[in-house]
Amino acid sequence: MTTEAVRATEVFQQDGVRQALGQYINSERFSGGTLSRDTRLAYCGDLAQFEKFCQNHDILPMNALTQQDIGDWLKEMKEEKGYARATIDRKRSSLSGFLDWAQTEGLIRPDFTISLPKSEPVGKKHRPILSAEQVDSLISKAKNLRDASLILIALTTGASVKEIVNLNVEDILRTGDGNIAIRFKGIVKRVQSRTLEVDKKAGSKIAEYIGKSGLKPKDPLFKGRKGHRWLIRQGFNFMLNGYAPKIGMQNLNPRMLRNTFIANFAGTARQLDAILGKREPEPARSTYFPRRLLKI
What we know:
The chain is mainly α and 296 residues long. It folds into two domains: 3-114, DNA polymerase, domain 1; 132-288, Intergrase catalytic core (hpI Integrase, Chain A), CATH 1.10.443.10. The protein has helices spanning 3-11, 17-25, 28-31, 37-56, 67-79, 85-104, 132-140, 145-157, 161-165, 200-213, 233-243, 254-263, 269-276, and strands at 172-174, 180-184, 194-197, 287-288. Strand 1 (172-174) and strand 2 form a beta hairpin. Helix 1 runs antiparallel to helix 2 (17-25) and helix 8 (145-157) packs across helix 12 (254-263). The chain is elongated, with a radius of gyration of 21 Å.
């Protein structure tokens, strides 16, 4: 049994909705799927929040649960809790997984999820992001080390496309423990320079790319074509669009990778601003390690 499943079992110990949630989190469908440990932990938190809502509204047995209850919970998340659209979408995804499982187990009627309320826009237009499964698929389908490095840098730092395509080899730094950190020089207006350490899996792939490409320190990390010294933004976009149908999407661009990082960031809003270069880094720190719910 996974650690998060043990913790969730301690929460969901009574009959009805609470018991069903505990069974789902302990099921092979949840713990043995493609979701990373951090994503499962986030989903457990979402489901615990839904269980508390049900308890507060005396929705105890599963057969008492209605589509209206789902809509009321999502509305509460939006209007009373004030969660961002991406967070609400994640909570809805967490609940949808549970309800799909509950249908399979015969705990709710077969057509329950067909008429579930759709999530509504919160404030501004929804920014599309990649699911955990799409992220895994995109990384695994990279056809060469260059593409893999571009994708990993975008997904693990949240840097803008302009910052990424203007990196030089000398901006890839070795940390004390042999990992990789990336120095962004703040070339975008109103964006501060900063150094971001990536996880070892991404760092090893980037280091392998540099080692096998024969690039020199002053060379662009990603060389352009047709007379361009650096890769241009359109080239990055064209590369990603080639992977879109392979991961079940119609369109894929660098902004979606940045949005995916932002939606899954596990720290505070101030920490996220520092990672994205929107605030002056704290004097005591020169290197930031992005914390994510989504495991890369």
